[in-house]
Amino acid sequence: MQFYAGIDIGSTTGKAALIDENNIICATHIIAATERPEKSAQICFSELLRKAGIDVGEIAHTIGTGYGRVLIPFANDNISEITCHARGAKFLCPTIRTVIDIGGQDCKVISVKEDGRVRTFAMNDKCAAGTGRFMDSQARALGVGIEEFSSLAASATAPARISSQCSVFAESEIIALVNCGTNASDIVAGIHSAIASRLISLLRRIPVAPDITVTGGCAKNDGLLAALQKASGLTIAKLKCDPQMVGAIGAAVLAKERAELKRQKAEQNAAPLPPRSEATDCSNA
Q1: Within 10 A of 113 (CB to CB), how many other CB atoms are there?
Q2: Can you give the pTM of this predicted structure?
């Protein structure tokens, strides 16, 4: 049995996934990112192998993705996280045609073809608005854990209006709301609405088709997904796995495809040439 690995090294976390010859996900692992991408990749990969109970010699191909993809020394190839999220979402749910990826420092919307390839995409990589870092900074301003956001939003009665798309200015707005006695639940609901608005502006830049899903760590926040569905009128399909692992899973799927293509080419090159037929002399015909 051979295995195929995907390593997704992002700005805040490192993720790794392993699939086998039968396209079964054998193991996944996630860690907080270290100060060096190559260190994050090695730690995550080692834990992945330990979980799966295999050694590195059983890995036929490894693909790196994410911001640190070019710094993974043991990867055979590297592919952009846009391609990997599209392929990973399609692998997990064949009907997916639109992916909203909310990462630590950017967010992307991806239109996916029927075969899992990227049709087109739009991304916000110039500021932190709508990203995981945006939510982290607002959580610090509120003095609550990011894991509390979903439950807090569920109890909101009058969601606050967060007008600024800038992370720094939005934090100032939140501090002012706290000082005015606004409930934390209403502020969190307002933060979710502000992020949903930002994502909708990206969605308008690509052809959107169902099914639609959200990937990345922020996809674990049911309050944000509810706000996005309400603001956009779209139905969000939830994947049957940790949405933060989608990029790594997509990289593993692509690793298997690359390995199979390489094997096919090697077999073609090794195949004996057909015998040459004797030339017919037609000079006297």
Answers
A1: 12
A2: 0.88
Domains assigned to the chain: 3-80+244-260 (3.30.420.40), 94-238 (3.30.420.40)
| Res 167: pLDDT | 64
- d(CA 153, CA 102) in angstroms, rounded, equals 19
* 3-state SS, one letter per residue, for 133-192: HHHHHHHHHHCCCHHHHHHHHHCCCCCCCCCCCCHHHHHHHHHHHHHCCCCHHHHHHHHH
**Hey, CA dihedral for 214, 218, 223, 227, is it positive or negative?**
negative
pLDDT in tens, 155-188: 999 999 887 666 667 778 888 998 899 999 999 9
Rounded to an integer, what distance in angstroms lies between the CA atom of residue 181 and that of residue 164? 20
Residues 6+ apart with CB under 8 A from 278: none
- Mean confidence (pLDDT) of the chain: 90
Amino acid at 78: N
End-to-end CA distance of the chain: 60
Contact 4, 19 (CB under 8 A): yes
